Amino acid sequence: MKALYIKGVHLYEILQRAKESKVEICGFLLGQEREDRFFVEEIVFTKNKLDSPIEFEVDPLETLEVFQIAEKEGLEIIGIFHSHINSPHYPSGKDLKGMNLWRNVWLIVSTLGTYGAFILKNGEIKEIGVVILD
Ligand SMILES: [Zn+2]
């Protein structure tokens, strides 16, 4: 079964930044995929180009920079994360469109304190497990 493995400090930092922000926060999960297990080794925050509390977009140039960081460190971009403000951590209609473009793990945190990881399988959203590591 697919699952996302993330360090507690990383998840906590994302949740914390989400709570402190008036707009959706976003960024990338760098790490490795091994047999359906996605191990996060690094998180990279990016700007929300839309500066919006209800949607996000990463600037393509910033995305390119993250690709370069990953390459330099021998990691893959295994996922994307962003926050939802005062709404549940489930993908929105716009997120679904994004998931069609970025077919990796989508970690969504809510400022309500909940979070979940999602992938697209046969065009449908599937929630996968999140395992928190020390
Ligand atoms: Zn969203």
How would you portray this structure in words?
The chain has about 130 residues and is an alpha/beta fold. The chain has one domain: 3-Layer(aba) Sandwich (Cytidine Deaminase, domain 2). Helices cover about 25% and strands about 40% of the residues. It has three helices and seven strands, in the order βαββαβαβββ. It has a seven-stranded mixed barrel. Strand 6 (about 115-120) and strand 7 form a beta hairpin. The longest helix has 14 residues, at about 60-75. About 30% of the residues are buried. The model has no long low-confidence stretch (mean pLDDT about 95). Zinc ion (ZN) binds near residues 82, 84, 92 and 95.
List the helices and strands and how they pair.
Elements: E1 3-7, H1 8-20, E2 26-34, E3 37-46, H2 60-73, E4 76-84, H3 93-101, E5 105-110, E6 115-121, E7 124-133
Overall number of strands: 7
Q: Given the C-alpha coordinates, what overall shape results?
A: globular
CATH architecture: 3-Layer(aba) Sandwich
What name does the CATH topology carry?
Answer: Cytidine Deaminase, domain 2
Average predicted confidence as pLDDT: 96
Main β-sheet description: 7 strands, mixed, barrel
Radius of gyration from the alpha-carbon trace, in angstroms = 14 Å
Helix content: 25-40%
* Number of individual domains: 1
CATH superfamily: Cytidine Deaminase, domain 2
Q: Which small-molecule species are bound to the chains here?
A: zinc ion
The string of secondary-structure elements, in order, is: EHEEHEHEEE
